[in-house]
UniProtKB/TrEMBL annotation:
Protein name: Rieske domain-containing protein
Signal peptide: none
Gene3D superfamilies: Naphthalene 1,2-dioxygenase Alpha Subunit, Chain A, domain 1 (3.90.380.10), Rieske [2Fe-2S] iron-sulphur domain (2.102.10.10)
Entry keyword set: 2Fe-2S, Iron, Iron-sulfur, Metal-binding, Oxidoreductase
Keyword Isomerase: no
Any GO MF annotation of the entry: oxidoreductase activity, acting on paired donors, with incorporation or reduction of molecular oxygen
Matches recorded under InterPro entries: ARHD_Rieske_2Fe_2S, Cholesterol_7-desaturase, Rieske_2Fe-2S, Rieske_2Fe-2S_sf, VanA_C_cat
Pfam families with a match to the protein in the record: Rieske, VanA_C
Residue ranges occupied by any Rieske domain in the UniProt entry: 6-110
Species, as recorded: Ferroacidibacillus organovorans
Length: 329
């Protein structure tokens, strides 16, 4: 899994001064808010005897271990060992590793590579503009899939499965013979304009709009930010956003939002859009959780591929390159 990346861990209103434990890449982290509301993140276990610090409490900017009362500041330094009574120094190896964390859009994000002194304090997730604009209304949701992170991401880049997995919804009336798909690549981005036209929302126009500015568009900002944009005419649009967090090699948390930039005071549209999205994702989930081997092979010769697999093949090649680069750091 890629450690040098931002992962969503919870909706922002769920994080309080009560410590919260999350698992990413099979590693446990504890997050909490300090007295100023700032998000703090670090290793989940006390360096003294390994107690779970999510059972602890927060006073001011310090996290207090529930076992022996050791205190840690937001930078992981142990500031007090009550049993020492001020006679002995705090052990040099009593510090906890800490991590960058922030709030953006509807979620709290964690950067899982350890914090560095030279790390740019302004670094944050590079989210799509629809998630940060007041001109869009957003309804967040969450799902858990028992599948490998890469398999889950590849499922939303695959356009040829629509008529088979979603015959009554997004694949209804879609020709299984894929034209392309048309896509473009950069070092960390995949942009897809799927053909033939497949309605991705039940409210979408029946016929495809031919102008380039009015095409359905799928964008992935690797490794884990995905959006599908659906034009509704007259500058109106709907979109579905997903971001993927690998808990371990067999579990992926999906944090998402359905959004639109019109009829801002019509919550029934959001309910309809969200219900449709959950139904379609449920169909995908059953398929992706069935795949074996669970972890995808990075040696592409171990699976058969065809032209319509282009975006997923390129994504897997990206992942292989990033993993190789991280292993050299």
């Amino acid at each position: 899994m890629i450690r040098g990346a931002w992962y969503a861990v919870t909706q922002r209103e769920n994080l309080t001064t009560k410590p919260m434990k999350v698992t990413i890449h099979g590693q446990d982290y504890v997050l909490y808010r300090d007295e100023k509301g700032m998000v703090c993140a670090g290793d989940a276990y006390c360096p003294h005897r390994g107690c779970d610090l999510s059972l602890g409490t927060v006073e001011g900017a310090e996290l207090i271990c529930p076992f022996h009362g050791w205190r840690f500041d937001r930078d992981g330094r142990c500031t007090r060992v009550p049993a020492n009574r001020g006679v002995w120094d705090v052990p040099k190896n009593a510090a906890r590793a800490t991590y960058e964390a922030c709030e953006k859009a509807e979620w709290v994000w964690l950067y899982t590579a350890p914090k560095r002194v030279d790390m740019d304090a302004s670094t944050e997730p590079d989210l799509f503009p629809e998630l940060c604009s007041d001109n869009w209304t957003r309804t967040p949701f969450r799902a858990t899939w028992h599948a490998h992170f890469v398999r889950v991401v590849e499922s939303v880049l695959d356009v040829s499965h629509l008529p088979f997995v979603h015959p009554q919804t997004t694949g209804a009336g879609v020709n299984p013979e894929v034209d392309g798909p048309e896509y473009a690549l950069t070092s960390n981005r995949i942009l897809i304009h799927p053909k033939p036209f497949a309605p991705v929302h039940p409210m979408e126009p029946v016929e495809a709009v031919e102008t380039e500015d009015e095409r359905t568009e799928i964008e992935l900002r690797a490794p884990n930010l995905w959006i599908i944009r659906t034009p509704m005419g007259d500058g109106n649009a709907m979109c579905t956003f997903l971001t993927f967090t690998p808990c371990d090699t067999q579990t992926t948390e999906i944090f998402g939002a359905v959004a639109r930039n019109f009829d801002m005071d019509s919550p029934l549209l959001d309910e309809f859009h969200l219900s449709h999205t959950r139904f379609v994702m449920g169909q995908d989930q059953a398929i992706i959780e069935s795949i074996r081997p669970v972890a995808p092979p990075y040696d592409l010769h171990r699976e058969a591929h065809v032209r319509s697999d282009g975006p997923t093949v390129h994504y897997r090649a990206m992942m292989r390159t990033w993993l190789e680069e991280e292993s050299l750091r």
